[in-house]
Amino acid sequence: MPLFDHFRPPVSLRHDWQSFHSRWAIAVMDSLNRKLPERFLAEAQIHLGRKVEADVVEFDRDEEPAGVARGPGNGQPGGGTTDGGGVAVAVEPAVYAPPAPAMSMPVEFHDTVEVKVYDFQRDRRVVAVVELVSPSNKDRPDERETFALKSLGYLKSGIGLVVADIVTDMHFNLHDELVRVGRSDDRFQMPGSPATYVVAYRPVRRKDENLLDVWPHELTVGAALPTVPLALKGFGCVRLDLAATYAEACERSRIP
């Protein structure tokens, strides 16, 4: 199946890119789990949007949280309950109102659409990652640098990495950003800095030198996606058929 432009009409008018990226990540996960040895497991991890999820963050409320002790006899200092023998027993509330914070600083949480491969013979250690680039990973210099630093963090730990970028309306190349942030020579950048591409990375130690084996592929709307190696730390490489996973995601998303 040829690559579609998911960020311009006609596809963008009917299909949301966030839904498609999520579906593609699941297809990659399923494909890897069909071929990985039993000791490995691939899992999709998706977080889109710059707000913390409601179930893991507190909302600022004027009222006291439920369960906070409010007076004598409810667990506050000086109060208590009896245990039936007339002896007052202090009760520690499960939730309390903390003092005013010293400061409240702004923070942003970045988009993440990735598939991680875990090795259960080594305490569920991450051994490989597939990153699907989102628009917010590319739209500002600090976001691009953050993505590059995250990628370099994986690679520095010996984790194999594949970065797939089909975002057509943001003309930045995150491989080139990785080269810049990693202070490598410009000759390792992709010719022409294409906006859409796939790059596979394998960290290796060869002849007493730390190296990154790199497989770059420029992507073109209307052309098929490549098959690339996904390096598993300490194990070897498996084939990642991006064309097949992309076609599955398109079919299940009813594209076109």
Task: Write structural notes for this entry.
The chain is an alpha+beta fold and 256 residues long. It contains 5 helices and 10 strands. The chain has helices spanning 11-14, 17-35, 141-156, 174-181, 242-253; strands at 40-47, 81-82, 88-89, 112-119, 125-132, 160-165, 197-206, 209-218, 227-232, 236-241. Strands 1-4-5-6-7-8 form a 6-stranded mixed beta sheet, with helices on both faces. Strands 2-3 form a two-stranded antiparallel sheet. A hairpin with a 3-residue loop joins strand 9 and strand 10 (236-241). Helix 3 crosses helix 4. The protein is globular. The N and C termini lie close together (10 Å). Mean pLDDT is 87; it is low at 63-71 and 73-78.
Unreliable stretches covering 5 or more consecutive residues: 63-71, 73-78
- Helical amount among residues, as a percent range? 10-25%
Count every beta strand, where a strand is a DSSP E run of 2 or more residues: 10
Largest sheet entry: 6 strands, mixed
User: What is the end-to-end distance?
Assistant: 10 Å
How many individual helices? 5
Q: Approximately how much beta-strand content do the residues carry?
A: 25-35%
Alpha carbon gyration radius: 24 Å
Mean pLDDT: 87
Shape: globular
Order of helices and strands: HHEEEEEHEHEEEEH
What structural category characterises the helix and strand content? Answer: alpha+beta
Oligomeric state of the chains in view: single chain
Which strand order spans the largest sheet, edge to edge or round the barrel? Answer: 1-4-5-6-7-8
